[in-house]
Request: fold
Amino acid sequence: MRSPLLERPDFRWFFAGRLVSLLGSSMAPVALAFAVLDASGSTSDLGVILVAHMVPLLAFLLVGGATADRFPRRTVLVAANLGSGLTQGGVAALLLTGHYSLPLVAALSLLNGVLDAFTTPALRGVVPELVDKSQLRQANSLLGSTRNATKIFGPSLSGLLVVSVGSGPAIAFDALTFLLAAGCLARLSLTGSAPAPRATSTSATSMLTDIREGWTEFRRIRWVWVVAACFCVINLVQTGTWQILGPALTKQLSGEATWGFVLSARGGGLLVMSVLMYRLRVTRLLRLGQLVAVTGALPLLVLGAGLPAPWLIGAAFVDGLGSAVTGISWDTSLQEHVPPQVLSRVSSYDDLLSFVAIPIGQLSVGPLAQHLGGFRVTTTAGVIYAVAALAPLASAAVRSLPHAQAGRAAPAEPAPAEPAPAEQRGAEPGREAAAEPGPVGPVGPVGG
Reply:
């Protein structure tokens, strides 16, 4: 059945832009990995390129959040997508012409990381400018379904392109999706709910002031920092364990093919629940999201216990179901309750906590497995994951946060005792759409 949301021209253009962008994002990692390995024959080159993307992403996230709250987010997103299309196009040109160079590809990857740092916070504010507050969950469900579908089919399509025409054309296709997404986003009118023009002093001092204001708001809203801190712990113990020990331990227990089935099962769970979330009606959406977040510990516990493949595949499917609920509930709660004029800055602190824990965990898991054993480390990670997922429910602010539904509005987050400086500058409401959901934290990487 066609969603009424797609009858809104602005949301339809945004949905189309996200669809092509997410398809490119899901294809790019496979194409890039094979392209670099074919051109250089070195896994070290691939590592350098991936690090070159991650470091500026972390370094510029807070600047990206401040920029997205200061300027029209549509403008930020269009510019970032155009820039990403050019950087990916540059990588494709180097590969297609046979002029692969590690310094050049790493430099382009670094620029792409900077652009992603501006894209990620800006995305969180677009959806509330396009739909009513009571429709945010449905909008995030549609976007989540699209994202999860591309995660399932994108890598396979990329593999087919790499085999049939090579890695260069596959990366060129990713560059094209960025440009197409920019074209779709440029069509947004954002009439009615779009923010009024803001004072836009661009001095470094003013930008630092905006970043500090974002930190003040992040700390003020208790349920935000409580959940964000707990998912920082989850990313610390889960991502490296799952990505590094997961394939090795699964191969040891039941063979290499099982790992593919495990990942597919999780993707299937994500897709199924993203669709079901469109119809779900609850009064405490964030509380539900935190309750089911504990399902993310199941695959780690099953793998750590050395159970047979069917148990691991089933646990991964259940994890996918729970992760979809958690991600959509988090994005929707932020968009419903965080003041619009600071949403991107608050989101950038959430993103930073989510992302910064990942490389720490990835670097730590190998040495820990050597000293303690892979199965013991995985079990311990599962226990910590479960505790961290449930810990936010100890806060009344998390348990009692209401969810806006059709026919009734959720109460706004209480205003601070002192007017926020952004409000003193005359900032008007205007938030942007959720990007990647939950663990990888409530937030995940965003690309084009």
